[in-house]
Amino acid sequence: GDIEIEQRGAPGDLADELYALYRQQQSAAAVDSGPFDALSPKLFSAIANHKPHDTLLLVYRIKGELAGFSISLFNAHECIGKYMGFRQPLARQHKLYFVNWMHVVRFCLARGIPRLNAGQNSYKTKVMLGCHLERNWISFRHPDGGWNLLVKAGGKLARFDTLDAELSHLEQTVPDLYRPR
């Protein structure tokens, strides 16, 4: 009802506001990804400028107020949800995360894009929406043989699926959580 959805080619004059919403979203996240979420304020404009025909930028307003955005990258085979930011509690009150989800699904269906990669985090919500998870592997090696044995042992203890309580709970309670390869 009160939600206006704008599909833009680039952030333009909203670049700073979109970045602020992204930072607000990251600071409220249950999992802190630290430096992995430290993006340049110019990134969103750079993506749109370098990939103008492969970027879906959705901007959400509620009664004229900027309430959220999402940026997805796509090609004929896949759409990848990359970045989003929502003004809280306004976005939550209007269920913008789910409105965004449905809009991106409709976008994929209209273009015949067969695969939607919903990104990382918020596993419980994404599983509820019908997603399957895919296991990711990080390989590492220390050049010194002795240190490499220690790093390898530490890697077995510091697995993300054991450190993230939500993911660990889903693994125990949801059958067929992971998509077969």
Description:
The protein is of the alpha+beta class and 181 residues long. 41% of the residues lie in helices and 20% in strands. The protein is built from eight helices and five strands; from the N terminus they run βααβββααβαααα. The chain has helices at 15-28, 43-50, 90-93, 96-111, 123-128, 145-157, 160-163, 165-173; strands at 3-8, 55-62, 65-74, 78-86, 115-117. Strands 1-2-3-4-5 form a five-stranded mixed beta sheet, with helices on both faces. The relative contact order is 0.12.
Please describe the topology of this protein.
Elements: E1 3-8, H1 15-28, H2 43-50, E2 55-62, E3 65-74, E4 78-86, H3 90-93, H4 96-111, E5 115-117, H5 123-128, H6 145-157, H7 160-163, H8 165-173
Parallel strand pairs: 4-5
Antiparallel strand pairs: 1-2, 2-3, 3-4
Jot down its keywords.
single chain; 181 residues; alpha+beta; five-stranded mixed β-sheet
